[in-house]
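Course assignment 3, question 2. Fill in each field.
Student: A.L.
Task: Predict the tertiary structure for the chain below.
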Amino acid sequence: MRNPSHVTPQEIAAAKARLTLAFTETPRQKLIKLVGWSIFSALTIYTLIAFNFSPERIWHGLGKLGFVLSFMLPPYVWPSWELFMEPVIAIGETLAMAFLGTLGATLIALPLGFLGAKNILKVEWLRFGVRRGFDTLRAFEQLVLALIFIRAFGLGPLAGIFAIMVSDIGSLSKLFAEAIENVEKKQIEGVQATGAGPLQTLRLAVLPQVLPVMLSNVLYYLESNTRSATILGIVGAGGVGFLLYDRISANNWDEVMSIVILILITVYAIDSLSGWLRGKIIGKNDYRP
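Answer field:
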């Protein structure tokens, strides 16, 4: 192989003349780049003006934030075990919301995932309708769903459970369908060669391939829903978020800091456990939190 340092200037000039488009931009490319950067700059400037962005406002806001943080330190120490159990029970309620919401979404998304996979459901128009249904469910934010279910079921964890479940059905169904579409066809053909029927093929050839991926996705959504359930509680869906909002409204900032610390510890524990389990499921045992 020739050493690149031995290429002469004449050879470089000849290459530039022969491959003009590789070294220079056409007028059309320059125009597209100019229009793209102009749109990007205009949108950035417009949003900064529309949101009243200014260094003075940011500096003033940071000062007020520091003033609030000064009230949060040192954190509140509960004087008795009975008082400490209130946030602990609220965190347990939040974890239950996340678990039940994720479980319900998984049970519903599993059959929907098969219906949304093109290698399982051959009827194109029906599969198209199922996939658009996934998109419709994914379009609703959990906070919006929580407010709707609060109006239907009243305040409390039940509204949060339904909000998490409905929101995750669309996302998990889409992930399940994509996992099913990427299965190895040789295993399916091997099972079918033994005379297995459609249901037996799904159970013996498709499900073993996609189950680790499905479980990994479910665990990820479980840890994500643990954080989401905290936010849902602020709008009245129960759990530790409701307790946190109550303490903020009462300006008990030191107790707010203590509750936030408990939430951080809980989320870290859930993330670590979920990551370890995902590593076990997909065969990677070297997970480190």
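Instructor remarks: Residues 285-289 have pLDDT under 50 and may be disordered. The CA atoms of residues 139 and 167 lie 8 Å apart.
Grade: pending
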